[in-house]
Design goal:
Shape: elongated
Number of helices: 6
Distance between the termini: 44 Å
CATH topology of the largest domain: Umud Fragment, subunit A
Largest sheet: 9 strands, mixed
CATH class of the largest domain: Mainly Beta
Number of domains: 2
Oligomer: single chain
CATH superfamily of the largest domain: Umud Fragment, subunit A
Order of helices and strands: HHHHHEHEEEEEEEE
Length: about 220
């Protein structure tokens, strides 16, 4: 096999492995340690070939063996262990009100398509379910702790403790709200949702509002 054909075959294997995992070029670049989309495009098109260290990073991100990507073996050797990193979708505040349905729809398509993705660290990964998602802070209601454009990792299956930040759905409102969870009594389930910016109002159960806690904020990624 000529050098040109090897480059083409390596590119084909990267492309097919990426599509099999439902990853965009951007998502693959993030999983592989920040590789640029232009480099990935050149590799997939066979214009250039990745080096040994880049092959290792791609193989890890794609769950295949480095030998497979380098055309030294036809055995993919997909890993059976849980990946050390994971991508979760970045939803908007409308989608967050019904996050599970939106995430299920993405999975049924078999691809994240044009969805924006957030890479989750190894340390946080064991605490997250397959329903986790991210939100970008859109206002100053939680200043100074949470700034505008900070990214929040939300886990719907973990109940909040007093003092935790939460995403909440308010009845008759089409967008989620970020607040701090505060218990009002040791003996009752009543709680209050507080903002940290004094210019923004708190949300009280006494306001006769129907509230649903969407999920607990597990991580704040400042100025993502």
């Amino acid at each position: 096999m000529t050098e040109l054909n090897i480059k083409k075959e390596i590119g084909k294997r990267i492309f097919e492995s990426r599509k099999l995992k439902g990853l965009t070029l951007k998502a693959l670049g993030e999983l592989a340690g920040g590789l640029k989309q232009t480099r990935l495009t050149n590799w997939e098109q066979g214009a250039r070939a990745p080096g040994p260290e880049e092959i290792k990073r791609l193989a890890h991100a794609l769950d295949v063996s480095p030998a497979f990507l380098m055309c030294l073996s036809d055995e993919k050797q997909v890993k059976k262990t849980k990946s050390l990193s994971q991508l979760i979708p970045l939803l908007d505040y409308h989608q967050a009100c019904d996050a599970k349905s939106h995430i299920d729809a993405i999975r049924e398509q078999g691809s994240y398509g044009d969805e924006l993705l957030i890479s989750i660290s190894t340390i946080l990964l064991p605490e997250l379910s397959d329903e986790a998602f991210a939100l970008k802070m859109a206002n100053e209601s939680m200043m100074p702790e949470i700034k505008v454009n900070d990214v929040l990792v939300i886990e719907p299956k973990i109940s909040p403790n007093p003092g935790d930040y939460v995403a909440v759905k308010v009845a008759n409102k089409s967008e989620a709200v970020i607040c701090q969870y505060k218990k009002l009594s040791y003996t009752s389930p009543e709680f209050e949702l507080q903002t940290l910016n004094e210019n923004w109002p708190n949300i009280n159960l006494t306001d006769a509002l129907e509230l649903t806690v969407i999920g607990k904020v597990m991580q704040k990624i400042h100025q993502y």
